[in-house]
Amino acid sequence: MLKEVKNVFGRTFYRVEFNKPLNIIVAEWYGTASQQDLGKALIAGLEMHEHTHCAYRLNDNTNFSGPWAESVAWLEQVWLPRAYEAGIRYLAHVARPNSFGETAGEVMMMGKIGATIEVRIFQDKAGALNWLKAKQETSQRPAK
């Protein structure tokens, strides 16, 4: 299952895909987008989680330079309740060091989002995938 969202210039800036074999939803951001574009993309991602009830999300911002920091309030008020209801429990946020994406990830991790779902920031996609796989293994172990 794959969805793409285009920005106001008709360019794809967001791809979200349910990787069924890994049981992870991977969202990849490219280029730039307006606040309105960000909202459209985040809703598309939520819809995929609502359809699959997948608890694991990888958010890759390494190729994106959008205004994430300005979106955190919207994420907390609008996105988070729907995300939690859809089943998201683990969010791996990948961003370049010293970027807006990294700053936004830190704000999410320390704020209301991080208090509701487990958020970790990574500098590479492989580390993020490994963390999500480890979380899957931990959550599937029977309680002692």
Offer a quick outline of the entry.
With 144 residues, this protein is of the alpha/beta class. 48% of the residues lie in helices and 28% in strands.
Features:
single chain; 144 residues; alpha/beta; 5 helices
Any overview of this molecule?
With 144 residues, this protein is an alpha/beta fold. The chain has one domain (2-138): STAS domain (Transcription Regulator spoIIAA), CATH 3.30.750.24. It contains 5 helices and 6 strands. It has helices at 35-52, 68-86, 100-110, 112-116, 125-140; strands at residues 2-6, 12-19, 24-31, 56-64, 90-94, 118-122. The chain has a 6-stranded mixed beta sheet, sandwiched between helices. It is globular and about 45 Å long. The model has no long low-confidence stretch (mean pLDDT 85).
Q: Would you spell out the secondary-structure blueprint of this structure?
A:
Elements: E1 2-6, E2 12-19, E3 24-31, H1 35-52, E4 56-64, H2 68-86, E5 90-94, H3 100-110, H4 112-116, E6 118-122, H5 125-140
Parallel strand pairs: 3-4, 4-5, 5-6
Antiparallel strand pairs: 1-2, 2-3
Helix pairs in contact: 1-2, 2-3
